[in-house]
Design goal:
Blueprint lengths: L1 H7 L3 H30 L9 H79 L9 H42 L24 E2 L5 E2 L30 H14 L9 H11 L12 H4 L12 H7 L10 H16 L6 H7 L8
Antiparallel strand pairs: 1-2
Length: 359
């Protein structure tokens, strides 16, 4: 019955919910890609030209292509999970049918054996009175045969359930493999554009006074704008190991452990903020806006200024250039200021077909 219990414990509703989440994430990825196209098409109409512009628009095209691939993968996972849910429901039905059939067969065999044994005992008692040999088969022989038959029934049932359990495990593992599969050509494989002084102006990142503008993080260099780099100084000389997807997932674990109600369903929104604020560069510094001129430029993946980072970081996550630490602070700021990532102005705007704007 252990195998039956394992099959029965499969929660089909959770699989359905996961499929819905992946489908919604795919829709969000598509919305973000469309929004990115809309917001850059205007610039591409001759408003901004030259080598830096060409490089930027090439990067945007690559990000849009990556977004399409991410959307396709998420939708593929959603379809796979829906199919998995249907197949597992059918497997559960088959297990239940076989269990009912086996129970019926065992009960019928028991009833038959009890009647036969009772009759055999009556015949044996009558033969003993007449001093005659007991008839065959005896009650003991009938009991032994009944036990053998019942064992055959239950062994067949166990074999059937084991085969169905193997089928379920195989399908579940295949779905897990698809879900964990690295997306070929996804966001983390888009090369970042080189830093250039011809980059478009921005007022970006998270401001200490709570005002918000588009981030558009600059390159990893230091000190433009004349105001210094703030208490945390300039970025390291080389990028950290890993990719944006890994950094987001690690940050989510730390946030959940700290009681922040963020889930994997928020990954697309975090991705979108990072994409628009820093382009995925953990060493990005916005070194041309008013914050930079005041000596506290926006830094890192989610473009935090030092004071906002320090106010929202978690213990042990103290490095503004560490991508995980920066995501943690940016997400906590988003929850503190807006109540959640869905309410971040840029995310809300894109959800309704508008262009992203900084938080």
């Amino acid at each position: 019955m252990k195998k039956v219990d394992q099959v029965e414990k499969v929660d089909l509703q959770k699989i359905t919910d996961a499929a819905t989440q992946f489908r919604e994430a795919g829709k969000n990825a598509g919305d973000h890609t469309a929004s990115l196209k809309n917001s850059t098409d205007a610039l591409n109409g001759g408003v901004w030209a030259g080598p830096a512009a060409d490089q930027f628009f090439q990067y945007v095209r690559q990000v849009r292509d990556a977004g399409t691939k991410v959307q396709t993968h998420l939708e593929d996972v959603a379809k796979d999970l829906e199919t998995l849910g249907t197949n597992l429901a059918e497997i559960k039905r088959k297990v239940s049918d076989k269990q009912n059939s086996a129970e019926t067969a065992v009960n019928n065999r028991n009833t038959q054996a009890e009647a036969a044994i009772k009759h055999a005992k009556e015949l044996a008692a009558a033969a003993a009175k007449e001093d005659k040999p007991a008839p065959s088969p005896s009650a003991d022989e009938l009991l032994a045969q009944a036990k053998t038959d019942i064992h055959t029934i239950t062994a067949g049932f166990d074999g059937d359930v084991a085969a169905l359990q193997t089928e379920a495990d195989t399908q579940i593992k295949a779905s897990q493999k698809l879900m964990s599969q690295q997306i070929e050509g996804g966001y983390d494989q888009v090369p970042l554009p080189s830093s250039t002084p011809a980059a478009p102006k921005s007022t970006g990142g998270i401001h200490s006074n709570g005002s918000s503008h588009h981030g558009g993080g600059g390159g990893g260099g230091g000190g433009g704008g004349g105001g210094g780099l703030g208490p945390s100084g300039g970025p390291p000389s080389s990028p950290p190991p890993g990719n944006v997807q890994q950094w987001i997932q690690e940050a989510i674990k730390a946030l959940q452990a700290a009681g922040v109600p963020v889930t994997d369903a928020d990954i697309p929104n975090i991705w979108a903020i990072i994409q628009h604020e820093s382009g995925g560069n953990p060493n990005a510094i916005n070194n041309w806006d008013s914050n930079a001129a005041a000596g506290h430029p926006s830094k890192g993946l989610m473009q935090c200024i030092d004071s906002t980072f320090n106010a929202h970081k978690l213990p042990g996550h103290d490095n503004i250039y560490n991508p995980v630490d920066n995501i943690i602070a940016g997400v906590r700021y988003s929850y503190d200021r807006y109540g959640g990532l869905d309410n971040v102005p840029g995310i809300k705007a894109m959800a309704h077909g508008g262009a992203y704007r900084g938080y």
